[in-house]
Amino acid sequence: MAHHVYKKLELVGSSPTSIEDAISTAIARSDESVDNMRWFEVVQIRGEIEGGKPAHYQVTLKVGFTLAD
After folding, report:
1. What is the DSSP string of 1-46?
2. What are the CA-CA distances from residue 32 to residues 17, 46, 47, 58, 67 (Å)?
3. Which of 32, 37, 46, 69 is most enclosed, with most CB atoms within 10 A?
C-alpha cells in the first residue's frame, strides 16, 4: 500500500437551490485550480430564510488533495 500525504483546504460553496448544489459548486470551481482532490467533509451548513422558507444555502467544506511528487 502506498503512503499518502494530504493537504486540506477550506471552501465555502453557495446555492439558491440546495445543499448538494452548494457542495458541487465549490468542488467544481476549485477543480479548475487544484489538482489531485480526493475527498471532502462538510464542516458547516447554514442558510438564509425568506418568507419562512430556506432561500439560500451555504456549505463549508474541507477538501483533501494529495501533494504532487
Report:
1. -----EEEEEEEEEESS-HHHHHHHHHHHHTTT---EEEEEEEEEE
2. 22, 25, 26, 20, 16
3. 37
Residue 67 DSSP code = P
- Give residue 69's identity as a one-letter amino acid code: D
Cell 489538482 belongs to: 35
The model's pTM? 0.86
Q: Kindly report, residue by residue over 4-56, the tens digit of the pLDDT.
A: 788 999 999 999 999 999 999 999 999 999 999 999 999 999 999 999 999 99
The residue behind cell 486540506 is: 8
Helix/strand number for the chain, H first, E second:
1, 3
